[in-house]
Amino acid sequence: MRVLRSVSIAFVLVAPLASQSAYQERDFLTRVRRLTVEGRRAGEGYWSPDGSRVVFQSEREPGNPFYQIYVLDLMSGDTKRISPGIGKTTCAFFRPGTDEIEFASTHADPKSKQYQEDELAFRASGKERRYAWDYDPEMDIYAYSEKTGALKRLTEARGYDAEGSYSPDGQWIVFTSMRDAYNRQLSEKEKKQLDTDPSYFAEIYIMRADGSGQRRLTTVAGYDGGPFFTPDGKQIVWRRFDESGLIANVWMMNPDGSDQRQITDFGSMSWAPYMHPSGQYIIFASNKLGFENFELFMVDKDGKKEPVRVTYTDGFDGLPVPSPDGKTLAWTSSRAGGSGGQIFLAQWNHEKAMEALKNAPPKKPAGKS
Amino acid sequence: MREPFDFTAGTRDGGSTFSGTAKGARVACEAGCVRALSFSDTGNAEGPVVFAGYGIVVPEGQSFAYDSYATLDVKDKIVLVLRYFPEDAEAKTKQVLARYADLRYKAMAARQHGAKAMIVVTGPRSPNAGELAPMTFDTAIAGSGIVAVTINGATADKMFAAAGKRLEDVQKSLDDANPHAAGFAMPDVTAAVHADVVREKKTGHNVVAYLPATDALTTTAKPWVAIGAHYDHLGHGEAGNTLASKDDAGKVHAGADDNASGAAAVLSIAATLAKEKRHRNVLVGLWSGEELGLIGSIAFATAPPVPVDQIAAYLNFDMVGRMQDNKLTVQATGTSPMWAKIVEQANVAAGFDLAVQEDPYQPTDVATFNSAGIPCLSFFTGTHADYHKPSDTPDKIDYEDLDRVAAFAAAILRRVENTPEPPQFTKVEQQLQSGGGRAGVRVFTGTIPDYSSEAKGLLLGGVVGGGPAEQAGLQKGDIIVEIAGQTIANIYDYTYALDVLKIGQPAKVVYLRGGVRRETMLTPGARK
Questions:
Q1: ipTM above 0.90, yes or no
Q2: CATH topology assigned to domain B443-526
């Protein structure tokens, strides 16, 4: 390779930074590999129950600048879009024991196409804005049948309905809804809140897999979202933001909404929790180390210890999802550079994780560290 | 098949001479008192001598105004200039002056002021005092349109003595960079200069082979795919781009990673494909002259044994033997909308921690194939502390992962090779101005210089899609000979000329197309 004259090549000798932790990223994650390449960004990769496929969202559809949902076969490498191709989509999840995949979509909104064109025009103008999720109130949850290709609408309420995931027995969906902002009279303060940050109204709901029996589980002001069942189906783990929208923590509760309890008290934005199939610990993302620096952490299931840092790489690391056998981790990272995150896979060292959690110091209340 | 191509391998002095007179008396020039500068024209010049200080002209619009020629008439005279730039100037001023102190730039300034020749002396107050300037090797070589030599301090002293001055005093008067301190004509001093620059022509060889299709697709318009890697390296480091330490200077540069690894990958893929059904012919290329400026691959693309528009895709390998932490960089993915999809699919099995770069304007042969309009990719496992040093040795190669890279690339090639529809080519806008590498170049013209050319002027190897040059109607093969009133003899003149261009202000460009002189207006943009 020629010396590139217009760019000076710096030889950076990577020395392990002095760190308080006895662990490094490679203790937990080895053989890091990039799963998605195509498109501006991809994320939220969730495993099929047999671990042979991953469903994810990606901005890669020609003519549509927004996320659509794709299923990637880990044997063949083939990828197939399963969402309608129109509008925005997010948060897909395989329904265990069936051919169904749920995801949220705005394609029923007649304005969808217009939004696509507006966004494309904006991007073509060369302008950039910070990436932000807009909590489109027309977002509703659908179940897609892989056999028939049919799409069944599960939610109807005005307000963002998304972030759904199935119970291990495939009978229930926990999800996030902002319907509370639309189904009652708002105070002036709340109206203002809706304009600036609609996620304030987000609460956790549960419904049957066919969309029936929708029921609210949380009632605390501030964004409650990102719920998942634990592997035994007996608990729901989610993240709860405070009213400011700046601090979030990992919480757990029973599927009927009882016994809500705070797991982390980390004094930062700790979100996207997902329990490891062992049932022993929760992996999540937090900006503990700097407002824009999200890293993966893990915490014991009872939240008795301080969280343990998992990733040590520049850029965003978040949305961790262990494979059903617990041996591989899928997560979303911007470590490859570029304007958006992509999905990465790595071998997950469960034994090392258990050891690190065991060695972790007892939980320190936030602000007293 | 060995495919020969000619190139300029270097320059040497073929016997330059200098003789002077001071007040009628001959100024003796002992052996070794003179040497041609590498960019000099070969020729003679004789005439009165004008001392032009440091010979620096800072173009208008810089923070600091300085023009060594402001008060001098040097037309048809020989200018004597100091090497480097004023020694005692403030750091900020030095930064500006240093940019215009390159001897090529000084030669251009002398030529543009009408001088017949330029003589350079290293002043007594400068580093390397009194020594000849070295004849640096440069592959982007072309005469600068003027005779230019360097003489030693002793010879210069005699000329100044005849003018009743001491060079050290004269230099000191200039060294604070006072823009009003000027050079002067040297009455009764004349010089006769003969510069003899021998440009060494050598012949390089690309090695090209092909695997014919076994099950040719009858429908396809592009029945070829190609893989390639350069197989040259730096020899003993003669060519100038070695990074060897002083202790290692002159040792054999093994080039195990750069680029025996790439050549091995190409051979390995060819061996694999040789055993398989092939729907397209597979061209296998090993390029020489890459380290000297991609000249082997350019020679191939200029006179290709297979028409380049018959090649569906090209995969390049340059430094693929030193994988760290499973990281592999795939470059030039912007050359086809198909690449991201194909690379993603192939990597599901290969499992690399991929970094993907859309930019095909890389310092490796992939740039040549991009210029030829072929969808292409380049594979790269990253640079390392042994880069361009004798310590780039085979024991440091990660052979297992080199195999994985070859298997990954073979899977990608297979996918193109057996798909009837060839990948569509997309032109990627160039993000950085090529060449120069001078931090101060702020304007963007969208030209892609052909560095291998010896044409007088700037031969365009291409223009950036949608860029100012394309909008001005310039195209590949045009030779720019003048821009904004400044004559352009070579790429150096061109990069210097860019300094006077202003963003958004149209500049006249004179160029040759098919030997015919034409004019156009080019409006430079802002460099991104």
A1: no
A2: Pdz3 Domain (2.30.42)
